[in-house]
Design a protein that fits this description.
Length: 149
Amino acid sequence: MLFKAVTLSLLTLASAHAMAAECQTTVDSTDTMTFDTKAIQVPKACKTFTVNLTHSGGLPVAVMGHNWVLSKEADADGIAADGMAATLDHDYIKPGDTRVIAHTKIIGAGEKDSVTFDVAKLDPSEKYAFFCSYPGHISMMKGTVSLVD
């Protein structure tokens, strides 16, 4: 009986840990202007969701920097266009741009950054995108974000 109780406790602990792990993901960026994923699924059960951005390339931030930006799909191109004037000092995001739901800083080779956002900001009836706002990168560095049960 004690063995059963210990086993059940360990299974409960393991499943709780697995559920917590689902509320984050890691996205890698490269020198070839790519993310290692084209889709991110955010569980509706998460209160917050964290994106860990890494850069596995060898080029510095000024040459091949990347960030991770989340917005409504319809806003992505406008955010990227407005971000070009914002410069690297502002991570190519127009200061105060309310269309941006979340974003990391621009990182270069070997660097990493993360951002955590409130899942309640995502409307299940809306389409969301993630992209890199470094000038010109959105054409190749983009994907979808969706809420899942």
